[in-house]
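Subject: for your reference before the review

Hello V.,

The reviewers asked for a structural picture of the protein, and I figured it would be easier to keep everything in one thread rather than splitting it across files. Below is the amino acid sequence we used in the manuscript, unchanged from the supplementary table.
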Amino acid sequence: MYAYIARRLLLIIPTLLGIMVINFIVVQFAPGGPVEQMLAEIQGDVTDATARISGQGGDLQS
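And here is what came back from the structure prediction:
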């Protein structure tokens, strides 16, 4: 019984690592960044606001 529990607990490690790798890959290949996604939910035009927030130029007062 203890061997079964130990084996199952040891199988959790590669399973969780696999899930984390798949999650990382999905997040990396998702279009846009988190700033763009939040702005897309709030307003329709994301290009100017994204540039201002991410520090890539644009006027901060407009």
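For the response letter, the relevant points are probably these. The helical segments are 2-29, 34-42, 47-54. The radius of gyration is 21 Å.

Happy to draft the paragraph if you're swamped.

O.
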